[in-house]
Each structure stands twice: as C-alpha cells, then as structure tokens.
Design a protein that fits this description.
The chain is of the alpha/beta class and 250 residues long.
C-alpha cells in the first residue's frame, strides 16, 4: 500500500458496529468483507467472542446509554470493554454518546486505545482526523446506514459515489443487522426489529433490490474500479499521530 494521503485523494475506511447482533449476522458481515478482500475495523460490544472477528482491525463499542453518566460508570464501562477486547486500539460509543467527561477519562489512558470515531459528519468534503480533548485523534464518520435510513433518505449511490471521488477521509459505518436483512427503508428495518436477536427469523426479512447490503457491495466494487485506497482506523490513527508529531517538531 502506498502512503495514505487523504488531503489530496480519497481514502475509504469501512467500519462495522456489531451492537448486539446475533453471531450469525456478524459472521455473515465479515464473510461479505472477506469476499471482497476488504480491510475493515470492527467496533465490538461486550458479549461477542472476539475470536469471531479474526484478523480484522478491532475497536471497542461501549454502551454509555445506562441510567447514569457518572465518572465511575463511564470508567468501569471502558475498563470492562478493554479487558474483554485487549487487542482493540480505538473506541466508538454506542449511539455515538460522548461528552467532556468521557474524553477527559480517555485522556488518562485505557488499554491500547489511540483514537476515537464518534463524530457524524455526513457528506462533509475534505474530512481529516482532528484532535479532541481526549488527546486522541477523532476519525469522523462520513456515512452511516442507520442514520441515513432514519432520516428517510434513499440510498442514492450515484450521488454518494461522486462524493467518494473527492479528497478526504471517507469513514463508512455499517451494522450487521442492516446488512443481514438488506435494509431498504426505515419502515423495513423497524418491522424486522422484533426479530433482532434471532438470525433465522431475520433471514426471512431480507429483501432483494437496492438496500444496505447491495450498497456495501457496490461501494467496494466502485472503490476497486476507481483505484480508491482502503485503510483501517488503526492505520489512519498511526498517520494522524505521525502528522501531529511532525507538526510539533516543525
């Protein structure tokens, strides 16, 4: 791989938020990526056997949506996640929950964590990592399946692929649930939610035609066709750290 330079050309990063999807759905997603020989970063919640993720780049996906946002509760969730996933190098919170309290705790260091990916910046051109009060680079999300569907948007691949060709960091966020059923609309995935934890029932909810699953396939095919480089979050975090060190020296 050449030196990744998202300031002059696009760099695509595929990320997966496992949430609490059944293992069969997660395995289905990872097999889809393997078919394309595509690198990806998997943000994993506690409870999923980390061996399922295999050699994919991994991050933690802590759940801060409980009844308290106390410093102790946040600290314990981060500790539990990093213990369960010692190979993880980054963090993306479930529901993108974050605050100054979260970031100041991250500043003190947890496991091998060296980046966050919690900011949603849909369609913004020229995205690059930036430093937050956590002392870690933030890798913003360019596109997310769930939030695209929640706002009633159609999955317009033509417009998206035009944006994909422009310089900048293009972090895409997919969920096994949406990939497994090929979510096509808000109504479609809400109707499937009662079967969320049952892969056999979810398979019956899968639809043909344009949806999240076909979108990922098309995205990876387009990237290969256009020669767009793919990277993991860990690779981008390494570049961001190097750039920060260079700027300090300068």
């Amino acid at each position: 791989m050449s030196v990744l330079d998202y300031s002059t050309r696009p760099v695509l990063v595929i990320t997966i938020d496992t949430d609490w999807s059944p293992q069969a759905c997660v395995e289905d997603t990872l097999n889809l990526l393997r078919e394309h020989e595509a690198p990806a970063t998997v943000f994993t919640t506690r409870g999923l056997d980390p061996r399922v993720v295999g050699d994919f780049d991994i991050g933690i996906h802590p759940n801060f949506c409980g009844p308290t946002q106390s410093e102790d509760a946040i600290r314990e969730e981060l500790k539990a996640c990093t213990r369960a996933l010692p190979r993880a190098t980054g963090v993306r919170s479930h529901a993108l929950v974050g605050s100054s309290r979260h970031y100041l705790l991250l500043r003190r260091g947890f496991g091998r964590l060296r980046y966050t990916s919690n900011y949603y910046m849909p369609g913004v051109p020229g995205i690059a990592p930036f430093m937050t009060q956590s002392g870690l680079p933030e890798l913003p999300i360019f596109w997310m399946d769930h939030l695209e569907l929640e706002r009633g948007a159609k999955l317009e691949t033509r417009r998206l692929f035009e944006q994909l060709l422009t310089p900048g960091l293009k972090v895409f966020d997919f969920h096994p649930f949406h990939l497994f059923i090929n979510s096509q609309s808000r109504a479609h995935f809400h109707s499937a939610r009662p079967s969320y934890h049952n892969a056999a029932r979810l398979r019956k909810q899968r639809r043909n035609g344009a949806g999240v699953r076909t979108m990922l396939n098309s995205l990876l095919q387009q990237a290969e066709k256009e020669g767009i480089e793919l990277a993991t979050c860990a690779q981008i975090a390494t570049i961001a750290k190097r750039q920060r060190t260079t700027s300090r020296v300068a």
